[in-house]
Amino acid sequence: MFASLFKRAEQSVDSAIGDLGNRIIITIPFLVALGFAATSLTLYLDRLYGSELGTLLVAIAFCLLGFIIAIVVRVRRDISAANANATDEAALADENTASRPQSMFDDETVMAVLSSAAPIVVPAMIRTGLKNWPVLLAAAAGLYVVSRSDHQSAVTPAASPPPPPSS
Predict the structure, then answer these.
(1) How far is 135 from 70, CA to CA, in rounded Å?
(2) Could you give the CA distance from residue 61 to residue 45 in angstroms, rounded to a whole number?
(3) CB 3.0-4.6 Å disulfide test: which of 9, 141, 144, 145 passes with 116?
(4) What is the model's pLDDT at position 47?
């Protein structure tokens, strides 16, 4: 019973990692090409309009590109959300799922990755933590000191000086 669950989790992790790897491999040459294109455009505009105005024009072009990409991403997200709402009418009818906030752990892919990676990652984290316990203790102490606000020290009243001895 558990073997089939682990096999399915491994397959989903492999497909998710493979898809992410393919996207990264495809994206890298385009980013390099975009860098060279930006450099060429900057040099051309610098020669044509001068250094300050040429660089400003390239910056404006990249801002416009960023706005266009943001609009496209938002439209695609809205379309996919509309499609998900149309196909998942049963989830809308269920009041329990509608009233409770969605967690990232509700996604099956994330849970498959976590459940298959946990037996490998947790022992490695424990081994690393036991080897480096002084560093972890120092980091925890540093976080504790940093997390204490100055407000706490300002609220505590200063010790009053002892009363003068009466003669």
Answers:
(1) 42
(2) 12
(3) 9
(4) 92
Domain that holds residue 3: 1-100
Contacts of 110 (CB under 8 A, 6+ apart): 104
pTM of the model: 0.39
Q: Are 46 and 22 in contact (CB under 8 A)?
A: no
Q: Which pair of tokens denotes residue 157? A: 């009243």
Based on the fold, state whether residues 112 and 81 are members of the same structural domain. no
Region of residue 125 (left: phi > 0; alpha: psi -120 to 50; beta: else): alpha
Instruction: Give yes or no for a contact between 112 and 8, defined as CB atoms under 8 angstroms apart.
Output: yes
User: Nearest 5°: CA angle at 59, between 53 and 62?
Assistant: 145
Identify the pLDDT of residue 120: 77
Residues 3 and 27 in one domain: yes
Q: pLDDT tens digits for 13-32? A: 777 777 777 778 888 888 88
Measuring CA to CA, which residue among 1, 20, 40 is closest to residue 109?
20
Tell me the three-class secondary structure of 105-148, residue by residue: HHCHHHHHHHHHHHHHHHHHHHHHHHHCHHHHHHHHHHHHHHHC
| Positions of the chain with pLDDT lower than 50, given as ranges | 98
> Given this model, what pLDDT does residue 125 score?
77
